[in-house]
Every structure is written in C-alpha cells, then in structure tokens.
Design brief:
By secondary structure, the protein is an alpha+beta fold. It has three domains: about 210 residues, no CATH class; about 110 residues, no CATH class; about 60 residues, Orthogonal Bundle (Arc Repressor Mutant, subunit A), CATH 1.10.10. The protein has 16 helices and 17 strands. Strands 1, 2, 6, 7, 8, 11, 12, 13, 14 and 15 form a ten-stranded mixed sheet that branches. Strands 5-4-16 form a three-stranded antiparallel sheet, with no helix packed on it. A hairpin with a 2-residue loop joins strand 7 and strand 8. One of its GO terms (molecular function) is glutaminyl-tRNA synthase (glutamine-hydrolyzing) activity. InterPro entries: Asn/Gln-tRNA_amidoTrfase_suB/E, Asn/Gln-tRNA_Trfase_suB/E_cat, Asn/Gln_amidotransferase, Asn/Gln_tRNA_amidoTrase-B-like, GatB, GatB_C_1, GatB_Yqey_C_2, Gln-tRNA_amidoTrfase_suB_CS. It catalyses: L-glutamyl-tRNA(Gln) + L-glutamine + ATP + H2O = L-glutaminyl-tRNA(Gln) + L-glutamate + ADP + phosphate + H(+); L-aspartyl-tRNA(Asn) + L-glutamine + ATP + H2O = L-asparaginyl-tRNA(Asn) + L-glutamate + ADP + phosphate + 2 H(+). Keywords: ATP-binding, Ligase, Nucleotide-binding, Protein biosynthesis, Transferase.
Length: about 475
Amino acid sequence: MKYESVIGLEVHCELKTKTKIFCGCSTEFGAEPNTHVCPVCLGLPGVLPVLNKEVLHFAIKAGLALHCDILPYSKFDRKNYYYPDLPKNFQTSQYDLPICLNGHVDIEVGGETRRIRLTRIHMEEDAGKLVHNGASIDTSDTTYVDYNRTGVPLLEIVSEPDIRSGEEAKAYLEKLRSILQYLDVSDCRMEEGSMRCDANISVRPVGTAELGTKAELKNINSFSGVQKGIEFEAVRQAELIEDGGTVIQETRGWDENKEITVTQRVKEGTNDYRFFPEPDLIPIEVSPEWIEEIRKEIPEMPDARCKRFTEELGLPEYDANLLTLDKQTADYFEAVVAAGIDVKTASNWMQGEFAKQLNAAGLTADKAPVAPNALAELLELISKGTISGKIAKSVLPEMWQSGKAAAEVVKEKGLVQISDTGALEEIIKTIIASNPQSVADYKAGKKKAIGFLVGQVMKQTKGRANPGAVNELLIKNLEA
C-alpha cells in the first residue's frame, strides 16, 4: 500500500518593530539576558498592555501581500499554558477573530506550480528562551530563562494541509520568507529564531480523502531541517502503520545530529489551552481606508520582479528565480546592471564568485564590503580585455578584504592582461619548441592537444595572457 504525506505548516515570524508588542522594551537581538524587560512583558501584577500600532500595520501589510481577507473587527485572546519561559502563564494571541483569514502562496516544484492555501494569519507575543547548560533540558544540570524575547511581536501564518512533500514545504518556506523580506516586515533569520516553523504531518493511503493522525514537529531551525524532518517523519508513520502500529497525536522534535524525530510530549488539543478573550485589550477595528493606504505601500513582489527580469532584461527564468528570491540580492543585481554591465555577465558573477564570497562571510548582499559599482568596475575590466575572467576571480577576494577598487588591485599586483601579439608571439614560439609531442599530436588531428599548449602559455605568463589571443596565435603558428 502506498501512502501520501499531508502537511500543514505553522510559521512564526518576528516582526521588525523597534519595540515589543505591548510595551516599550527594545526588540534588539543579542542583548545581555534579561536586560530588555519591564513589568509589562514580565507580567507583574497591576500592569496593562497597550498594542503597538506598527505590529497591526505590519500584520495587515503581510496579509494583503499574501492575498488574505483583512478582518475589520478582530480581538486578542489569552492562550493558557504553563511553561518556565512564559512569565504570565498565558500567551496573548488571537483565536477565533484573527486579523487575517484565507490567502495563498504559489510555489513551483519540479516545474509544476502549486497553490498552498492559508487558513489564517494572527498576531501574538513571543515567549522567552530557555538556556540549557547541556545539549537539552533532559541532560542539563541547570536551565536559565532569558525573558528578553518575551513580548517580541510575532505573526503566526497557518497553512492548510495542502503540502505533499518535504521539498514542497521547503519551497513554501523560501517563498514565504522572500515575500516577508520584500515587505520589510521581518528579517526572517532562522539562525536567530526570527523565523520558526512547526510542521503538522500525517500520512494516508493514496486516493483516500480522510486525514490520518498527525504528529507536530516543533521549532525546526533551517530549511533543510524542515525538508529532512518531514521526510523522516512521513516514512516513520507509514512504516508504523504497515507494521500494524498506530500513530498517536504528539509533539516530536527533530534531532539535527541523528537526523531522526523524537517524542517530546503528547500533543495538547485546542481545548487544553482554555482560550478566552483578553480583558485588558480592546477589540481592533480597522477601517477600509487604512487598509487601502497600506495596500499602496506594497512594493514589487518576488513573482512580479522575476517576470520583469525575464521579460524586460532577457534573463533566463532559472537565473531570474534565483536572483529574486532574496530582495537584497535582486537590488544588488539591478544596481550592477544599471552601471552598464551585461545582464547575463552580472547574473553569472552574482550566482558564482560573488555568492561564494557572501556565503563564506555569512553575509547578505546589502552587507557586502564590495559595493555594486565596485563589482561593476571589476566586470568592466574583463569586458575591456584589461584582465581575464580567471584573473578577476583572484581580484574579487582582494577587493573584499582590502576595500580597494578593482583597478587599484590590478595595478598593485601587476595583473594587467597581456594582449600584445608581439610579446605573446615570442612566448608561444618557445612553448611550441619545448613541446614537440603536443605539436605532433595536434598535427595528427588531435585538436585537444592545443589545450595543453594554451595551459603552458598561461602558466608562463602567470595567467595574464589574453586567452583568445593565445588560441589564435597558437593555431597560426601550428598550421604555418
């Protein structure tokens, strides 16, 4: 019997507000533990929360970009549960009247476009963070609580169970991150916890409509982890059923090192949270006029930008998809092209050598020490024949480290390409005289032998010879 996976994702995104959702404490990441706290976010007696208007603004903006219905009337609720990182013993969230309903995200996997429906988007506050002095809470002698994150504003984006594989889940998350970054409402840095994902996974026999019992996979901190975790859990459930076992509703964790899922606790149902309306916050009323004002703020989205890159700039669709997935990369690319660089050349360098430098430094394109106009200058030196592409690959790291302009590095290192045919002619004659076997192979019809001779010339000139001129002169001398 074959099974299919049925997957729904709950994604929590921290919003890029300067202060928390119900108080004036800073949301800055990385501060000393328990320094960004106050009586409100610590839930001390007698305090009252006040909604940060920017949180509502960002929630509506995200909802519009994700094709949601914005509710004109919504409210906050108390979600009750007990855990050390929740100082009030309840989380202020939204239950039956969230700010956004419905919506969708379109993804492409294997050349096929699929629409993943959204159930809802709601606002809520984050909990604190448990810091274990061992690998986990079970193996630690001590656990500390940092409440800096308590009260940081979150959007929870809940999908319908429309996802059918780990690959689709990864594509959905990447698309969602891209949209939220373009809107500038969240930085979506999974490594800092500002984008977190819970996956609800069940399996069912192919061709049936009834949903199986789901397991929830909690707080996975990478896109690859989401894909691997879902794929492992789906196989685990299918094998359990095949062996005559029963899947139970539970919360499981993804062990990144062992690449397995492990039981954490039996999953609570909605009733266990005893939701009730938050009595200290008034309901939210949003006017149609404000919604339309926010709609005008929405910039060009990833899909529209990708289409423009293919139709107006003539980029292949593959290149356009990669370059527009991240807003900072797309902005950088457009700046390089605006400086007069060929579109495909700019794309190749952005995806190749430039991306290699970014990844090694752990940076986004907007934080690169080489500005777009500086990269454009380097690429212009290639197009003019001043340096070869191979030499340029050694120049970029030097620019990255020193902050110097491309022309300055080339001059200091003596890397100007040798295009003078007179100078190259002498070198080529020496190489031909020194390699009679390769010459004989070439004249015997083994045309690939010229590659060896080109390599010898490049070696002799330390990579500075113009490859085109070298090929032309070698052929002329060999066939003379």
